[in-house]
Amino acid sequence: MADLDFEKFKFNSLVRSATERQLTIIGEAVNALSVETKAKYTSIDWRGIKGFRNIIVHEYFGVSVRMVWVVVVKELPVLKEVVQQIIADCNDQSRTATF
Question: The pTM is what?
């Protein structure tokens, strides 16, 4: 998405559809996270991610292109950092686990 600005995004239905699909998958993945994981990483609005997924899935014509753009540009990079930290923490835990 680095080569897209909002105007290009707005008028490219293929990219918008693919982006909305990926955001839907992220919302489903968030739903599968444990309560403990969500409680540990409080900088993320986990409920908001799931709620946005529901808007994308159920509001069909009510999805704001601007809102999707803002989520992708501003929120997704923050989520990516936290998810990378969660993965690193899980890897650390598995290395120190005793069987």
Answer: 0.86
